Amino acid sequence: MSEAQSVTLSYEDGARAVELAREAVESYVQNGSREQPGSMREAFYARTGAYVRLQSTRGRGSLRGCAGAHQGGDQLGHVIVDAAIRAASDDSCGSEVRPAELSNITVSVCAVTNLLLTDDPIEDLELGRHGVVVDAGSETGWLYPTVPVENNWTAEEYLGRTCRKAGLPPQAWQREDVMVTLFEGQTFREREPEGSVEQLKLE
């Protein structure tokens, strides 16, 4: 079962989405406040899901925060702001992003464009194209479409890691009571902290 979302971002939309996410992170980290989307581009009024990912450039680099949802009733602009704040909070990776870290963090945004609820993840999953969400009711986990490519994972490893992120055994994606959703999205990220934005073209 697929569900198409009513949003296609231009490069300018994507660059603004990343800028909006950074503004939300900085406002939250520096002032403890929620940044309003402000002048929203037309695409940001679409009601679809989005994810925000924060990565540290210090040392070998590491995931500093991630948050979002693959579907929801809010407008994309508000979803990006909310996800950015959650990614910067201590609910994400265990410790809140500190003001001193902001100049060493890159921001990326993935706007969801299509969903596929699958009964056969191995058959339907295309590495580099699909993000994965596993949902066991009270336990839910997800990973970005770029993650398996970055880590050279197989489809089984990707599904297993997503299950582990949800607090489930690695093979839980095979259970009948666990729902697996694949999502496609457009991903935009800063090349360097506060730098220019690129759109990731995944094969």
What would you say this structure looks like, in words?
The chain has helices at residues 11-31, 76-88, 90-93, 121-124, 147-151, 155-165, and strands spanning 2-4, 50-56, 62-69, 105-118, 131-135, 140-143, 179-190, 197-199. It has 203 residues and is of the alpha+beta class. Strands 1, 2, 3, 4, 5, 6, 7 and 8 form an eight-stranded antiparallel β-sheet that branches. Strand 5 and strand 6 (140-143) form a beta hairpin. Helix 1 (11-31) packs across helix 2 (76-88). The two termini are 23 Å apart. The model has no long low-confidence stretch (mean pLDDT 88).
Strand-helix topology:
Layout: E1 2-4, H1 11-31, E2 50-56, E3 62-69, H2 76-88, H3 90-93, E4 105-118, H4 121-124, E5 131-135, E6 140-143, H5 147-151, H6 155-165, E7 179-190, E8 197-199
Antiparallel strand pairs: 1-4, 2-3, 2-4, 4-7, 5-6, 5-7, 7-8
Helix pairs in contact: 1-2
Structure summary:
The protein is built from six helices and eight strands. The protein has helices at 11-31, 76-88, 90-93, 121-124, 147-151, 155-165, and strands at residues 2-4, 50-56, 62-69, 105-118, 131-135, 140-143, 179-190, 197-199. Strands 1, 2, 3, 4, 5, 6, 7 and 8 form an eight-stranded antiparallel sheet that branches.
